[in-house]
From TrEMBL:
<feature type="domain" description="CBS">
    <location>
        <begin position="24"/>
        <end position="82"/>
    </location>
</feature>
<dbReference type="Pfam" id="PF00571">
    <property type="entry name" value="CBS"/>
</dbReference>
<dbReference type="InterPro" id="IPR046342">
    <property type="entry name" value="CBS_dom_sf"/>
</dbReference>
<protein>
    <submittedName>
        <fullName>CBS domain-containing protein</fullName>
    </submittedName>
</protein>
<dbReference type="InterPro" id="IPR051257">
    <property type="entry name" value="Diverse_CBS-Domain"/>
</dbReference>
<dbReference type="InterPro" id="IPR000644">
    <property type="entry name" value="CBS_dom"/>
</dbReference>
<keyword id="KW-0129">CBS domain</keyword>
Length: 134
């Protein structure tokens, strides 16, 4: 595993070139992709969060689910209590690198209408979550 060396600088220093690593939040709760939609919603409610990082059986980040997305799945006509997070098409990606600039990441999130984006290292481990500023 290769570690990325990061330099910390004041928030006022070159705000245009700030990276995702400078502004991301902690990854928060991480759940397995074989978890059901109902259980994931319960985890969100217990943790008072609007999103969960989803990991595969090796602990690598496969995506992120939101309360709004899971609620939409649960309220759909095809919903059953057997639907797992891995069955939801939008669970997989996209991801941001910690070296991506904040401006680039926010632009991509707005184009894809994402409120949050997982930040992963080169091995696929979740480092944090970037929330879109309003």
């Amino acid at each position: 595993m290769t570690l990325v060396q990061m330099q910390f600088r004041p928030a006022s220093a070159h705000p245009v070139h700030r990276t995702v690593a400078d502004t991301m939040d902690a990854a928060g709760p991480q759940v397995w992709e074989n978890m059901t939609v109902e259980v994931a919603l319960s985890v969100m409610a217990a943790d008072h969060t609007g999103h969960l990082v989803v990991c595969d059986e090796d602990g690598l980040c496969t995506g992120l689910v939101t309360r709004a997305g899971l609620t939409a799945v649960r309220d759909s006509s095809g919903y059953t209590d057997r639907i797992r997070l891995r069955d939801i098409a939008d669970v997989i990606g996209p991801f941001a690198s910690p070296l991506t600039t904040r401006v680039e990441a926010e632009r991509a999130m707005r184009c894809r209408q994402l409120g949050a984006l997982p930040v992963v290292d080169e091995d696929g481990n979740a480092l944090g979550v970037l929330a879109l500023s309003r």
